[in-house]
Amino acid sequence: MEITLVQGDITEQRADAIVNAANSSLMGGGGVDGAIHRRGGPEILEECRKLRASRYGKGLRTGQAVATTAGRLAARWVIHTVGPVHARSEDRSALLASCYRESLRVADELGATSVAFPAISAGIYGWPVDDAARIAVETVRAAETNVADVRFVLLDGAAYAAFEARL
Ligand code: AR6
Fold first, then answer.
1. 12 Cα to the center of ligand 1, angstroms
2. Which domains does the chain have, with CATH numbers?
3. How far is the CA of 124 from the centre of ligand 1 (A)?
4. Taking Cα atoms as reference points, which of 89, 85, 67 lies closest to residue 31?
5. Does 10 contact ligand 1 (Cβ within 6 A)?
6. Is 156 among the residues known to form the active site?
7. What is the pLDDT along the chain (167 residues), one digit of tens a residue?
8. How far is the CA of 153 from the centre of ligand 1 (A)?
9. What region does 41 belong to: left with phi over 0, alpha with psi -120 to 50, or beta?
C-alpha cells in the first residue's frame, strides 16, 4: 500500500472512493460532509435517505461505514463514516480507528483500490489534529486490505503538517 498526502479539498480528488466524515443521520452537515454533498449533488443524499429507510433506520453508528454513489464527484463511491466526538473524559480512540478500518473494509467489498480520506473527527468533532493523524496513519498502515492507494487529503497546512510528521 502506498500512502500519500495531499493538501487541498477532498471533493477535487479523483479516486475510486472518497470517504466522508459524516454524522449518524447521514443527512449531511458542515465541513467535509457539506462540501461532498454540495459538489456531488442530490443523488448522494437520495441514496442516504434510502439507507435510512432500510438498513439504517436508527442511523449509522459511530465507527461504522457505508457506501453510496459519488454523484458528480470524480469517484465511483462515497464511503460515509461517523467519527466520534472528541471527549476529554473518555478515550474514544478505538472508535476513530474503527472508522478507518471499516472504510477500508467497505472499499474492499466494493473493489475500490484507491481511497481518499479526510482527517476524520479533526474538525467540528474537535479531535486534536496531531492525535487524529497518529490514529489515522497507524490504523491504515496496520489494516489488511487490497486498497493500494490511500490518500489523506488535508484542507489546511496544520493538518498536513500533523500527518506528515506521523508518516
Ligand atoms: N476537504 C478536505 N478536508 C476538509 C474539507 C474539504 N473540503 N472541509 C473540511 N475539511 P469535519 P468531523 C477538514 O468538521 O470533525 C459535519 O457537520 C477539516 O478542516 O468535516 O468528523 C458532519 O455532518 C478537518 O480537518 O468533520 C458531522 O456532523 C477535517 O476535514 C461533523 O461535521 C474533518 O472536519 C463531523 O465532524
1. 15
2. 2-166 (3.40.220.10)
3. 6
4. 85
5. yes
6. no
7. 999 999 999 999 999 999 999 999 999 999 999 999 999 999 999 999 999 999 999 999 999 999 999 999 999 999 999 999 999 999 999 999 999 999 999 999 999 999 999 999 999 999 999 999 999 999 999 999 999 999 999 999 999 999 999 99
8. 11
9. left
Q: Is 71 in the pocket of ligand 1 (CB under 6 A)?
A: no
The Cα–Cα gap between 36 and 57 comes to 22
**0.90 exceeded by pTM:** yes
Type of residue found at 142: A
Alpha carbon nearest to ligand 1 atom 20, residue: 31
Closest CA to 129 of 95, 99, 96: 96
Catalytic residue among 33, 108, 149, 156: 33
Residues in the chain: 167
Distances, alpha carbon 105 to alpha carbons 32, 55, 65, 140, 165, in Å? 21, 18, 9, 11, 26
**Is the CB of residue 122 below 6 angstroms from any atom belonging to ligand 1?**
yes
